[in-house]
Amino acid sequence: xxxxxxxxxxxxxxxxxxxxxxxxxxxxxxxxxxxxxxxxxxxxxxxxxxxxxxxxxxxxxxxxxxxxxxxxxxxxxxxxxxxxxxxxxxxxxxxxxxxxxxxxxxxxxxxxxxxxxxxxxxxxxxxxxxxxxxxxxxxxxxxxxxxxxxxxxxxxxxxxxxxxxxxxxxxxxxxxxxxxxxxxxxxxxxxxxxxxxxxxxxxxxxxxxxxxxxxxxxxxxxxxxxxxxxxxxxxxxxxxxxxxxxxxxxxxxxxxxxxxxxx
Length: 263
Description:
The strands form 3 sheets. The protein has a 5-stranded parallel sheet with strand order 2-1-3-4-5, sandwiched between helices. Strand 6 (140-142) and strand 7 (145-148) form a beta hairpin. The protein starts with a strand and ends in a 7-residue tail after the last helix. Residues 45-54, 239-245 and 251-263 have low confidence and may be disordered. Helix content is 37%, strand content 19%. It has 9 helices and 12 strands. It folds into 2 domains: 2-129, 3-Layer(aba) Sandwich (Rossmann fold), CATH 3.40.50.2300; 140-256, Orthogonal Bundle (Arc Repressor Mutant, subunit A), CATH 1.10.10.
């Protein structure tokens, strides 16, 4: 899942980025309202399977209120007037009821007063991500695969899965779009930040890791390569030969990146 943080206090912004990335989120950071406004204008309507026309390639916006260039209230109102529906969590040192009402009326989904505990921020993020543009159950499931975003636990064939934070985030993304073909570019947009090299084969590397972990008889799930496009998480009705079905497509990539740290 990909988050945009707009916060002018650089120390706090970088701490948020570091902490959220440790939890498996991809995070971009901007330090002023003008830059955020330009980002919104430039990134709307990014094409890709699973995307929504006219929407930003982010799953959540964390928006400070007091920003140079344009304040958070104004930016949030502009987003909503443009029809953008991503969840917005506003951060502010202003705890007056009138300020909270202003933020919520501008279109914010939640409002967190500084200083705050990081654990509370994580809980609020999880809550907002369970409230996407369609209703979702608290535990995602497909076949014998279940994933609980709040507890950070995934199980397959009745057993806990050992996943890195990035693998967990990627598996959640596939479960949110099960059966859909997700392009490599779209996956990069939603699971990695802007600092990552878009020409890397990292999507194939992580897809290969997940495929091998899902290649169990009776699991009922397979991660399928769609040649020239990307990947799709699908029910494995035949339940046979899963392990070797798509290895040729990403096996070389996985081998070539074996030394890269697992995010």
